[in-house]
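Write out this protein's structure.
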Amino acid sequence: MPDEYSILSRAKSLGVSAEILSLESKGYSIYVEKGQKSGSQVIDRGYAIRVVKDGKVGMAYSTVLDEKVLDYALDTMKVSNPDKDYSLPAGKKVDYLSAVYYPEVEEPFDKVKEYALYFEENEDNLKVNYVHVRSESFGVKVVSTEGVDVQERRSFVSLGVAANTSSGNEVSPEIFESRESRRFDIDIEEVKDTLREKTEITSNRAKVDVKGLDVTFTTSAQEELIFPLINFSFSAENLYRKRTIFSQREDVNPKLRIVDSPRREDGVFSRSFDAEGMPTQENVLVESSVKTFLTNYYWARKASLPHTSSASRNFTSLPSISVTNLVIDFKEKSKDVREGTVVVDKVQGVHTSNPETGEFSVVGSVAWLDDGKKSVGLREIVVTGNIKNLLKNVILQSNPRRCGSLISGDLRVSGISLIM
């Protein structure tokens, strides 16, 4: 049976540059809803072959690696339009990270069950609606005729819990909390405490005059709203196609720093190399002004920008561009950032935002007014703004925490429109 290297050797003999991406994963999960438990274990494998000659590109993928996949890729190359900027990158030395894989995820059954059973104990009127626990280990390998030969194993653990509570005739909206890690070190007691706190705040909601108040976006709300807009806005492809409202070197906020940081030890999406096998690096997107747009190898050449090694893909697609761990840091910090503001913790309707203009109008499905003494749950409010103005009007931040792909503290922002 052929391996990656024999297939690459054949491609090279045909005068074609070729790259093979191999992905292999093993995952286990438990889902609990209304006392019913279901578990699943999935083992998956996929291969993608990308070929390039004279600026023409072809790609094919399969769950089995053999010579036919190369033949299919060569066939698709025949109908490709030539582009002088399309080629495969040359191999570079990779400095491997040490904290992206933990062997404990290979035998996850006891810990996954422990996480799930912990939330079966209903207390303090907290009603847990469902729990989803998942662990996964996966291997990534990229080899090419141009000298790329890298591989890495990574691990991932996630916990998602949804709950609500009731007080009299009032029922709180469903509160969802999720945590992710590379290993089984999630603080499940903290998750339950957070669920209890938020359901208590929102179980009695009122209509309150919030006109003119600042808005504090929690890290959770930022991950839902701000992260996808920044991910789109700072793509070199969208800059080249004039689909982003940001431009090179434009002023944003003198105290704001935004970084894509794929090498952080506390980042659950950290990686030693990107989806083209290029060594990763920290990329400063904003430091007072716009500093960088993210690129893969093709868009670095096409847009005449530095190569930031930000390629992302699965085995069924060509490389695109994506943020890994987005870090938002504001110079002015305070633990009282929420005081006197409308706190928005969850949003709905992000898919209706216009990433090309940066405009959004979303429902703050979980929100409350913090008057410095108590928190008053708010019935659904509409939060309207523009990502550029939002970043410009950040005035305060709490200490950072991680939520999915985002590392940021609560952000206090002025000038956001609120409609009750």
